[in-house]
């Protein structure tokens, strides 16, 4: 696998000036990982310390071995819900829940390494965007529901969603009002602090959770019925216990482990791909799988549970100025040191504070923008979303994952096509040719360094989004690029997932003062872009409708690109010979 090679390559070119940035970024990530790790362990039905163990050594391994140097792994919301199914099943069968969590981590790790060895990275692309959105939305609602009893200091029985909700409503007269105030106060404080620009870089969650701990101790609220972390499982100061998880009961958890593997790979790859596209890096999915799998195997041997790539901690890592994969390694070290030196200090944190934090995190999981895209998409997108969402709410989450995968497979079989992406260049007679067609003569022609023309052929459905995103990111990573013209007149069936990808790509380019221009857009696609709001996000002036006249739409798009570039120092730009005569005399 490439993981060790990539790590060695990164560290070989490491600059001493990066160390400060990596350490500071790691400290920021640690401040987020501490409350999230404990909170997500609560979601999984495990002692909070298990979440901290999972955010320590396994994170170091993942950061060192995975393809993306900036992705931070660890406990996550949706994956913790799947683990909760295994923990609940273990309790019913009289098994140790910690043992069940370790077995799940081991199985998930082995499956991920196998997926990497078999180069199954591309399979993740064939789980459609609406299916993932439906599942994550359902998981967010279940997480919120699962914290209601912690918010009120009451009990919540097992059962169907509506039965649990009704039982919680009936228990409201018994609610502990101090607990309610702590939980709602935590959620409100986090939301308010995030709205203050000057405080954006502060660890809001950790600050508010620490305040809850202080309030409990000063006013002795435990004596007034406020439950704390100690009631779920006291944290002690010390290293995680290293032990073999055992395999005698592994067969009972195989189906659940497979579902957790699929979810972890989809989540991790999505985060890594987003980071890679933003930084112009190529993602090696097989290496991602290998690194993530190694991290999960280590979690199994050091009292942890299954982990995945964390969107929030990864974003925090990048915004804090991380320069290399060492920021993730340092964050794992910091979490471990805090647990070893002062883990017992967390015992007085009120559970209601974590409930408030989880309600905020659950709300943030619901991506209303993507749901809006789904609503304005075609009937197949809407059915995929609502079927998966319903499955998550009425079925167990592992079965909802299988349902989502089945829907994606059916959708793929109906829409499968081959995607062809090629860069275009101006030939010796001013004609458009694919770059590889210019052959040995390619070096004899001056290329415009600022404008890339990319021709796409095939069906633009969700299975093609990953490949197209990778190709566009590679084009955008070229030096001096100011505009990417995407020629679409030989494509068909642009669906919601591809539209979302194009919008996100255009937004990333805009941050660099670059432009994405779509050429040859058919009227049906134009209508879908307008309904979803993507037309305004990309820019109406950056969308050139298909024209039956030969090359008229691509000429219009190139003309728009030249206008955007302005005078960029290309004295004899070959693209001037390609557009109409009115542009040939203009300076650009």
In which order are the strands of the major sheet placed?
A: 4-3-5-6-7-8
> What value does the average pLDDT take?
86
Structural class, by secondary structure, is alpha/beta
Total helical segments: 26
In angstroms, what separates the terminal alpha carbons? 47 Å
| Cα Rg | 26 Å
Low-confidence stretches: 581-588
Summarize the main sheet.
Answer: 6 strands, mixed
How many DSSP E strands? 8
Helix content: 55-70%
Strand content: 5-15%
Inertia-based shape: globular
Q: TL;DR?
A:
By secondary structure, this protein is an alpha/beta fold. It has helices at residues 3-12, 18-43, 48-54, 57-65, 77-92, 97-117, 129-146, 148-152, 161-170, 177-194, 204-218, 229-233, 254-279, 285-301, 311-319, 326-342, 351-365, 368-376, 379-394, 397-415, 462-476, 496-511, 523-532, 534-538, 552-565, 581-584, and strands spanning 73-74, 308-309, 420-426, 432-434, 451-459, 483-492, 515-521, 543-545.
Question: Could you explain the architecture of this structure?
Answer:
The chain has 588 residues and is an alpha/beta fold. Helix content is 60%, strand content 7%. The chain has 26 helices and 8 strands. It has helices at residues 3-12, 18-43, 48-54, 57-65, 77-92, 97-117, 129-146, 148-152, 161-170, 177-194, 204-218, 229-233, 254-279, 285-301, 311-319, 326-342, 351-365, 368-376, 379-394, 397-415, 462-476, 496-511, 523-532, 534-538, 552-565, 581-584; strands spanning 73-74, 308-309, 420-426, 432-434, 451-459, 483-492, 515-521, 543-545. Strands 4-3-5-6-7-8 form a 6-stranded mixed β-sheet, with helices on both faces. Helix 2 runs antiparallel to helix 15 (311-319) and helix 10 (177-194) runs antiparallel to helix 11 (204-218).
């Amino acid at each position: 696998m490439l993981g060790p090679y990539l790590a060695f390559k990164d560290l070989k070119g490491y600059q001493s000036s990066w160390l400060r940035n990596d350490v500071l970024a790691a400290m920021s990530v640690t401040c987020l990982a501490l409350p999230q790790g404990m909170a997500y362990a609560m979601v999984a039905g495990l002692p909070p310390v298990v979440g901290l163990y999972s955010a320590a050594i396994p994170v170091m391994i993942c950061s060192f071995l995975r393809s993306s140097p900036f992705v931070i792994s660890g406990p996550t919301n949706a994956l913790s819900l799947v683990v909760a199914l295994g923990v609940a099943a273990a309790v019913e069968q009289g098994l140790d829940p910690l043992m069940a969590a370790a077995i799940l981590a081991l199985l998930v790790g082995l499956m991920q390494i196998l997926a990497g060895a078999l180069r199954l990275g591309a399979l993740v692309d064939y789980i459609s965007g609406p299916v993932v959105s439906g599942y994550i939305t359902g998981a967010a609602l279940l997480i919120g529901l699962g914290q209601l009893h912690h918010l009120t200091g009451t009990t919540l029985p097992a059962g169907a969603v509506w039965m649990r909700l009704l039982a919680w409503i009936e228990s409201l007269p018994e609610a502990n009002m101090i607990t309610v105030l702590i939980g709602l106060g935590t959620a409100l404080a986090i939301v308010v602090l995030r709205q203050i620009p000057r405080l954006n870089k502060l660890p809001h969650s950790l600050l508010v959770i620490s305040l809850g701990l202080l309030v409990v101790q000063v006013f002795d609220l435990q004596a007034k019925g406020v439950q704390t972390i100690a009631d779920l499982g006291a944290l002690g100061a010390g290293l995680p216990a290293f032990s073999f998880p055992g395999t005698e009961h592994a067969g009972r958890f195989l189906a659940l482990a497979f579902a957790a593997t699929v979810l972890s790979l989809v989540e991790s790859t999505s985060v890594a791909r987003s980071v890679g596209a933003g930084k112009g890096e190529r993602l090696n999915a097989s290496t991602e799988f290998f690194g993530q799998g190694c991290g999960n195997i280590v979690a199994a041997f050091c009292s942890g549970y299954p982990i995945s790539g964390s969107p929030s901690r990864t974003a925090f890592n990048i915004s804090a100025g991380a320069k290399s994969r060492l920021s993730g390694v340092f964050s794992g070290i910091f979490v471990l040191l805090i647990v070893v030196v002062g883990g017992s200090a967390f015992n007085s944190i009120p559970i209601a504070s974590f409930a408030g934090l989880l309600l905020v995190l659950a709300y943030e999981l619901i991506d209303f923008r993507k749901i809006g895209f789904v609503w304005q998409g075609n009937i197949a997108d809407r059915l995929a979303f609502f079927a998966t969402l319903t499955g998550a709410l009425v079925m167990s989450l592992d079965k909802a994952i299988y349902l989502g995968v089945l829907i994606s497979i059916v959708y793929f079989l109906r829409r499968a096509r081959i995607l062809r992406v090629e860069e275009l260049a101006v030939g010796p007679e001013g004609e458009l040719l694919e770059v590889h067609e210019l052959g040995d003569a390619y070096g004899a022609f001056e290329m415009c360094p600022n404008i890339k023309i990319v021709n796409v052929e095939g069906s633009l459905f969700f299975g093609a989004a990953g490949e197209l995103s990778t190709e566009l990111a590679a084009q955008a990573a070229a030096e001096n690029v100011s505009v990417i013209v995407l020629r679409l007149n030989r494509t068909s069936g642009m669906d919601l997932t591809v539209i979302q990808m194009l919008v996100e790509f255009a937004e990333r380019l805009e941050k660099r003062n670059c432009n994405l221009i779509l050429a040859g857009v058919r009227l049906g696609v134009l209508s879908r872009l307008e309904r979803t709001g993507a037309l305004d996000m990309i820019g109406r002036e950056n969308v050139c409708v298909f024209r039956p006249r030969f090359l008229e739409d691509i000429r219009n798009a190139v003309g728009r690109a030249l206008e955007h570039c302005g005078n960029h120092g290309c004295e004899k730009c070959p693209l001037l010979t390609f557009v109409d005569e009115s542009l040939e005399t203009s300076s650009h």
